[in-house]
Amino acid sequence: MPIATAPGSVPLLGHFVRLGRDPLNFMDSLREHGELVAIRLGPQRFIVVCDPRLAHQVLTDLRTFDRTGPVYDRIRRAMGAGVATAVHADHRRQRLIMQPAFQAGHLPGYADVMRRQTAAMVEGWHDGEVVDVVEEMFRLTTSIALQALFSTTLEPDDAEQLRGAFEVFLRGGYRQIALPLLARLPLPANRRYQAALRRWREQVQALITRYRNAGGGQDDLMGRLLAARGEQGEGLSDEELSDQVAVLLIAGGETTSAALTWAISLLCRHPEVLEAACAEADRVLGGEIARWDRLPELDLTARVIQEALRLYPPSWLLPRTATRKTTLGTHIIPAGTTVMVSEYVLHHDPALFPEPAAFDPDRWRTPPMDRRSYIPFGAGPTKCLGEQFASAEAVLALASILGRWTPRLEDPDAAAKADARIVLLPRSLRVRLSARV
Length: 437
Hints:
alpha+beta, CATH 1.10.630.10, six-stranded mixed beta sheet, about 50% helix
């Protein structure tokens, strides 16, 4: 059976224009064309999976649907071959080495880092101030990720330079990956991107060298990664460590900042839920910054984060390449085909999530009918190692913010418009802050 192609493709650019102008409506429209739908980005053809059963098959069979092919070649040139981008042959070894650093026993220590950085942010705001939540949450979560990684050696200037280079990399990465021909042109944006990438790698390598020269033993994430060993007693090379830093900052920085940004946007658009979440923060925190031991009591805040991740999953397109001829449902997939699982499409399936466009934290009082339909952290052998870290960070930070401040949208019309890039985010989200304590 032939796979339908989404309408609206234009010569040379394919669906890139539609995806760039309104990525969410475009992705929502795909489901009506079948369980598999073809789209084009530039000259490349991709198959988008719109069915949770087939998506589960793609994400759990890493041997058949591997992270290979031209798309992942470009991703690895930008991000390196870390645990989130490595091919099947390297992924298992890297994951086994890294897993101990994310054991549940380390989370209270990481939560102390979250608490200090969150306090610095919320205590630096002023009553009546207008802030861009996209920028503020990015600074918060990258500060937390950097401090958790490099607590003993990172100077403030180092952190600021790393964060700046990282931001340029994230903003330009989507275009570099989706339109490789455009990325080769000597445009100012491309030159900024390449310069930021070089600066990023040089800084990370210098930090790793400093760690090794210090003799190890530091009580932070990088110290644990340096001490970790695989099944044969091998550790991670400097190049592999550098690649993991990029992955951890994207997972612990940009994706968590996206979850917080969308959660605040949704709360501002639903004042009754905002009022209830503020009341929960008052009852549980009493004006303090949230600690690890308060996490179980922040039930509504956790459901708000879950619903934000459903409505606006940060990793909205997950590509895989078929390594051999195979089938998905009733369709034959030739070897070399790039298949994309869209968390956004799965999370908005009306058969699984009634009124899928509605913001309803109460839907999480009971689990979804099909757990395969909700995958904000991926699924299968490549599911995010830092899921517990990121979830705890988002809940603790959001509760701490709401315990001190009430946000109000400056421009309600701009609150739900997503920008197409590596991580799903609005271009900006300006809110006015009112002090609560």
